[in-house]
Design brief:
With 187 residues, this protein is mostly beta strands. 7% of the residues lie in helices and 32% in strands. The chain has one helix and 13 strands. It is globular, with a radius of gyration of 18 Å.
């Protein structure tokens, strides 16, 4: 069998190094997120996050699946206090699950991890009332807004393009660097 023809030629690898890119700090909750891949059209978001001791996120319902690999520290869901996630833990969450993330107040370090999420988190306040929805598009807009407010550059992340055209029309040629964090069209 002959080697197939490349459908999507890459001039360079699309790669993000969390040790090089500066994360974005949530000004309200104090945790850091490093966006790695945000695809609002397909509902996929990949983040590296650092949550300091005492972090408590809203209770949320997952419309899709989550893969979370803990690289440092410890955390748990309030609903599962005896199932602490520690460095080296891989957690799979099925769509339709509901829970509340927290890092213990007395933790000796921040909890860090890498997450791949499909769909959205439907968030609720402490009384169980709808609060908001977090998805790839909301994360992207929040990151851009925080960076504008703090007068800093938006960190690089991979953002696949949706270059929809009618069949038979040529797709515009895009430089690889434009697909990894060129946010001039978002301003």
């Amino acid at each position: 069998m002959a080697l197939p023809q490349a459908v999507n030629h890459q001039a360079e690898l699309l790669t993000i190094n969390i040790n090089v890119e500066e994360p974005v700090r949530n000004p309200v909750d104090g945790y850091d997120i490093q966006p790695l891949f945000l695809d609002p059209e397909n509902g996929t978001w990949v983040l590296y996050a650092r949550f300091p001791p005492g972090t408590k996120l809203p209770k949320h319902f997952h419309t899709g699946t989550v893969h979370f690999f803990t690289t440092k520290g410890t955390w748990n869901y309030i609903e599962y206090p005896d199932q602490q996630q520690v460095a080296g833990s891989y957690l799979y969450e099925p769509g339709g699950s509901i829970h509340q993330f927290c890092v213990p107040e007395d933790a000796s370090e921040s909890a860090e991890g890498f997450m791949v999420v499909s769909g959205a988190n439907v968030n609720f306040d402490d009384e169980g009332n709808f609060q908001d929805i977090t998805d790839a598009g909301a994360i992207e807009q929040a990151i851009i807004g925080i960076c504008q407010m703090t007068n800093r550059e938006v960190p690089r992340y991979i953002s696949p393009g949706a270059q929809a055209v009618y069949t038979g029309q040529a797709k515009p040629v895009v430089q690889a660097s434009a697909s990894i964090g060129d946010h001039s069209s978002h301003s």
